[in-house]
Structure formats: structure tokens, C-alpha cells
Design goal:
The chain is of the alpha+beta class. The chain has 21 helices and 18 strands. The chain has helices spanning about 1-5, 35-50, 55-70, 95-110, 115-135, 160-180, 190-195, 225-235, 280-295, 305-315, 325-330, 340-350, 355-365, 370-375, 385-400, 455-460, 475-490, 510-525, 540-550, 560-565, 585-595, and strands at about 20, 25, 180-185, 190, 215-220, 240-250, 260-270, 300-305, 365, 410, 425-430, 445-455, 470-475, 500-505, 530, 555, 565-570, 575-580. The strands form 4 sheets. A 9-stranded mixed sheet has the order 3-6-7-13-12-11-8-10-9. A 5-stranded mixed sheet has the order 15-14-16-17-18, with helices on both faces. Strand 14, helix 18 (about 510-525) and strand 15 form a beta-alpha-beta unit.
Length: about 600
């Protein structure tokens, strides 16, 4: 009884105490894990048995061990691991047939030595079909080193590339502001419902985001739909705005062609009810000004009208509910030959072959005023929408001529612009020259700008359905950059990556603080200035830095200059030097920069 009383712990924790046969106390370690406590209690029981303790003591400790095991319970034991083989994917004969058909087409194009662009497009379609047939399983985490790379369809930009981009962005903003536009910004992601149903067959390219607290979101596909949502939310009926920001598309990327998954768009839009074709013609003029200001070579701006396209489908016998899907096929004529487009219309979309042939006669036409007059006198003019579209097109070409951009505008009936929200004039700029990279390979970038009229889009978001007529244009800046980078590489031209105007040089040691004083004076005078971060840099290294970075002027400091209250201004290119008083230094530098702005 005395031993049992002694074994009862006097503290609240469930610490198991036992006394060995020799009289020594056993203090098991305190633990929180039930498994660890069972192990320790088992050790106590084995120790007591080894020490030949009293039977009563051993039985009591065994009872405690059993109680702990019951507390653990049978459900806590790990279940045996059973490997289950993944179920075979269900067969899809229809999709397998499509993959085989597309594979045959690719082989045929290669055998016929078709153009590289046509073959590439067919290969991309084949890969997409294969992915649809056998979607990849979730990737398993893998050990080893992290592979450093940018995500597919994205890229980094080096300082030289960014210098070119900034100059082009600046030219575009200047153009937009010259036409009286103000800027806005919208979130990079939107509610999924805002974006769906606006892009036709391209809706599959929208990037969906994981559920974040009950809101179904997606990355913006373009800047036009967010702008329409912005106008509806803020009850805006008149605005001329520009917006330059990144958009995201789950497309098949091609870096060389400027087709990325993350890229900039530069948009200009005019919202408001105005007289026909005046705002539309200004959008065409803006495209002409921007493309003329950058080094991308000759271009043409194709124009068409959704009303004319709908009229073509109407007189050719297409059902109205098929207009948009047939329009998306016509939109592929800039990448695929008519035979392929026709096959898609008839085989995949079920259009009558005779109707497709009649459409083919129209969509291969292009021209100017003479084509408009010809079509107004044809069967097409029997369609009300086509006749109104042709009248609008005649007015647009006249206004473009008055704005001085008529020479680069072409009325092209193959232009369709596959997005669902266009309602009137549509246009697209394409490059005419054969751009090649430094390896001599041709660069085909497709359209470099596009847009049109979308009078019904704002009304889709307005609670009362109030529509705001809108027209706008988007500059495909990434595609322009791919051409410009290739041109710079061929010229082997060096771009300045810094805008420094003056570098302060010390001609002797221990003049770091004097340099800092001069730098401060120049910064205060709004002169872009640098100096070395070393206390005692070599004169030659400082001059070399100026040459390497295209810095035009240097302020040279020495002990004699400091004592005389003067500085030497040095022209880095000509190496000519002139002494000026310290208090006149800022004005002297500004004067040299204004007289020779090319050195800035």
C-alpha cells in the first residue's frame, strides 16, 4: 500500500512513475504523442520484469499499458498501401480521326513544299488536337536543381531592348496625345462573366484564375472589353481615351513572330455618338502616323465593314445563325489558302458547298472606290446591311484621303476580324516588306494593328441596356518590336541604355567629396548626371565609361580647378575641353545641350 501510494503522482501531468526492485525510481520522459507514451510504458513494464519487481506492481503497469493501447485504437494504425493502376483513357474515335486527318495534311504540305508559315500553322493545329485527345496528367514534383526559365510565351527584356521599347512607347503616347486622348487604367483581371461571350472562338484562349474567395476571375484578354465595362460602370457616354498595358492569351506562342502569351497592347478609342465615319477615319489616321514613325518598312491598312460581310453571307445563302462562325473562318484567309478555309466551312461547319463558292468569289476582292461602285451595282446591294456598309466605306475612304492616309488604305473583302463585338467598320494593318532576321530567315508577324467599331459592347454591361457607340484601334506593339529588333541586329547599331548627359570626373586622388558637391549642383539644376562609385577611380576608366555608355559631356575636376573656382567641360567625342566658372557651370552645360541636342 505504501509503494502504491508513493507511485501516485503528486502533480497533475500524467507522468508514469515506477519503482524498480532495487528501490530506484523510474521517471519516463514527458511526451505528447500517444505512440511515444505506449513505447515508454512498455519500457517501464519490461524494466520491472527484468528487475523482478512485485507482481502487483507489474500488473498495475501492464493495466496502464493496455489502457494506452485502447486509447490509441485500431483506427490509428496505418492502412496498407495499395497501388492502383490508372484507368485507361476512354477511346475517342472521332478525335483520333481528326488527328490522323490533320497529320496527313501536314505530311502533304511538306511533300508539296508549301510555305513555312502554312506548314507551321498546320503543325500547331495538329499539336492542339493531340493535346485534346491525350491531355497531359498533372506533373509530379521532381527533385534536383531548379530550371531557371521564363514561363512559356513570356520573355525578359534586356536594357538595349527596353531602350528601343521606351522610345517607341513614347512615340505612341505622343501620337495619342496629339489627337486629344486622355488615359485610364483597369485591373489586370476581371470577373470571368465580364469576358465570356465577347471573343467568339477565341474565348478558349482566356486565362482562368483559381477561385479566390468566391469570385470567378480571369486575366484580361484585351483592353477593349474592360474599357466597355468601365464606361458602363461609370455611366460615361463621351470619352477619347488611350490605354497601354499588358494582356494575356493562352495562345500557341512564337517569340520570333511577336506572338506571346503576355504582351502589351496600345489602345486608342473614341466613345460617343458622332457623325458617320469621322471618328473611324481618325483611328485609321493614327495607325498610319504610328507605323510611319517607327522603322518597320512599308505597310497597308486593310478596311472592311461587318455590314458588308453579313450582306455577303445573306446573298450567298448562309443562315443568319451561322454568320459569326462563317465570319471566323473568313478571318483565317490571311494565314491559310482559300481551299483550306472552304474545307473548314463545309466539312467542319456544315455550310453548303455552293454557298461557300459564292462567298469565295466575294472575299477574294480588294480595291478602292472603283470596287465600291462595282459592288453597289451588283446583287450584293440588294442586302440592306451591305448597301449601308458600302456607303459607309465610300465615306471612310474619302475622309482618309482628306487626312492624307488614303494611299496606304485598301478596301479588302477578306478582312473579317473574328471578335464577336464588332458591328461596323473594321481595319487591320499588315507589313508589306519581307523582314528577315540576322540569319536571313523571313519574319512573318501577321497584323501589327487592328480595330473597328463596336456600338453594342457597352450596352451589354449597362443595367438598362443603354448603348454607347465606340470605335477604336489597338497597336500590336510586340510584333512591331520583333521587326525592329531584327532590323537593329542587321545594322549592328548600338543603342543607348542610359540617358546620362554629364559624367563628373576627378583627375586626381582624394576628390570624391568634391565630385559629390558638383554632382549635387548638377542634379539641382535638372541635369542628368553620374560619377564613379570609387573614391579614387583612374582617369582613363572614367573616360572609357563615358564612351561605352554614350555620355556626351564630362566635368573634369582637379586640385587646380578647385582652387581657381572653375571646372573643365570635355566633349567626349571630340575631346575638346573648355574652362568655365563654377557658378556658370549649369548654364554652360544647358547651353551646349540645347545647341547640340543630338548629343543628349
Amino acid at each position: 500500500m505504501l509503494l502504491r501510494k508513493f507511485l501516485k503522482p503528486s502533480f497533475p501531468a500524467r507522468t508514469l512513475l515506477a519503482k524498480s526492485w532495487s528501490g530506484n525510481l523510474i521517471f519516463p520522459k514527458m511526451t505528447n504523442s500517444i505512440e511515444d507514451r505506449i513505447k515508454e510504458q512498455g519500457d517501464v513494464v519490461r524494466k520491472l520484469k527484468a528487475d523482478k519487481a512485485a507482481k502487483e506492481v507489474i500488473q498495475e503497469e501492464v493495466a496502464k499499458l493496455k489502457a494506452l493501447k485502447l486509447e490509441l485504437g485500431p483506427e490509428s494504425k496505418p492502412a496498407p498501401v495499395v497501388k492502383v493502376k490508372p484507368a485507361p483513357k476512354p477511346a475517342n474515335p472521332e478525335m483520333e480521326a481528326k488527328v490522323k486527318e490533320q497529320g496527313d495534311l501536314v505530311r502533304k504540305l511538306k511533300a508539296e513544299k508549301a510555305s513555312k508559315e502554312v506548314i507551321d500553322e498546320a503543325v500547331v493545329k495538329l499539336k492542339a488536337l493531340k493535346l485534346e485527345l491525350n491531355p497531359p496528367s498533372a506533373p509530379q514534383p521532381q527533385g534536383g536543381k531548379l530550371i531557371l526559365k521564363t514561363a512559356k510565351g513570356t520573355r525578359d527584356y534586356q536594357p538595349t531592348q527596353m531602350a528601343v521599347r521606351e522610345k517607341v512607347f513614347s512615340k505612341i503616347v505622343e501620337t495619342f496625345k496629339r489627337h486629344g486622348a486622355e488615359t485610364i487604367d483597369t485591373p489586370v483581371f476581371e470577373l470571368k462573366d465580364v469576358l465570356t461571350g465577347k471573343y467568339g472562338e477565341d474565348s478558349k484562349l482566356i486565362y482562368d484564375l483559381a477561385d479566390q474567395g468566391g469570385e470567378i476571375l480571369a486575366l484580361r484578354y484585351d483592353l477593349t472589353v474592360p474599357f466597355a465595362r468601365y464606361c458602363a460602370m461609370n455611366k460615361i457616354s463621351n470619352i477619347k481615351r488611350y490605354h497601354m498595358a499588358k494582356v494575356y492569351r493562352r495562345d500557341n506562342p512564337s517569340i520570333a513572330r511577336g506572338r506571346l502569351r503576355e504582351f502589351y497592347q496600345c489602345d486608342f478609342d473614341i466613345a460617343g455618338a458622332y457623325d458617320a465615319m469621322i471618328p473611324d477615319a481618325e483611328c485609321v489616321k493614327i495607325v498610319q502616323e504610328i507605323l510611319s514613325s517607327v522603322d518597320v518598312g512599308p505597310f497597308v491598312i486593310k478596311v472592311n465593314h461587318r455590314g458588308i460581310l453579313d450582306g455577303i453571307f445573306e446573298v450567298c445563302g448562309v443562315k443568319e445563325d451561322m454568320f459569326r462562325t462563317i465570319c471566323s473562318s473568313v478571318d483565317k484567309l490571311d494565314k491559310s489558302p482559300w481551299d483550306e478555309v472552304k474545307k473548314e466551312m463545309t466539312d467542319e461547319k456544315g455550310l453548303d458547298e455552293a454557298a461557300a463558292d459564292r462567298i469565295g468569289e466575294y472575299v477574294r476582292m480588294s480595291g478602292g472606290d472603283e470596287l465600291i461602285e462595282k459592288l453597289l451595282g451588283s446583287k450584293l446591294a440588294e442586302s440592306k446591311s451591305a448597301k449601308q456598309g458600302l456607303e459607309d466605306m465610300r465615306l471612310l475612304l474619302r475622309y482618309c484621303s482628306l487626312y492624307g492616309c488614303g494611299e496606304v488604305v485598301s478596301f479588302d473583302l477578306s478582312l473579317a476580324r473574328g471578335l464577336d463585338y464588332y458591328t461596323g467598320v473594321i481595319y487591320e494593318a499588315v507589313l508589306c516588306g519581307e523582314a528577315k532576321d540576322d540569319a536571313g530567315e523571313e519574319i512573318s508577324v501577321g497584323s501589327v494593328a487592328g480595330g473597328g467599331r463596336y456600338d453594342g459592347l457597352v450596352g451589354m454591361f449597362d443595367p438598362k441596356g443603354r448603348s454607347v457607340p465606340c470605335v477604336g484601334v489597338s497597336i500590336g506593339i510586340e510584333r512591331l518590336f520583333s521587326i525592329m529588333e531584327a532590323n537593329l541586329a542587321k545594322k549592328n547599331a548600338k543603342s543607348r541604355t542610359v540617358d546620362t548627359q554629364v559624367f563628373v570626373i576627378s583627375a586626381q586622388k582624394n576628390l570624391a567629396e568634391e565630385r559629390m558637391k558638383v554632382v549635387q549642383e548638377l542634379w539641382t539644376g535638372d541635369v542628368r548626371t553620374e560619377h564613379s562609385y570609387k573614391k579614387n577611380p583612374k582617369m582613363l576608366n572614367q573616360l572609357q565609361y563615358c564612351e561605352d555608355n554614350g555620355i556626351p559631356l564630362a566635368v573634369v575636376l582637379g586640385e587646380s580647378e578647385i582652387a581657381g573656382g572653375i571646372v573643365k567641360l570635355r566633349d567626349i567625342v571630340t575631346r575638346a575641353e573648355v574652362e568655365v566658372k563654377r557658378e556658370e557651370m549649369v548654364e554652360a552645360i544647358r547651353s551646349r545641350l540645347s545647341i547640340n541636342p543630338q548629343i543628349d
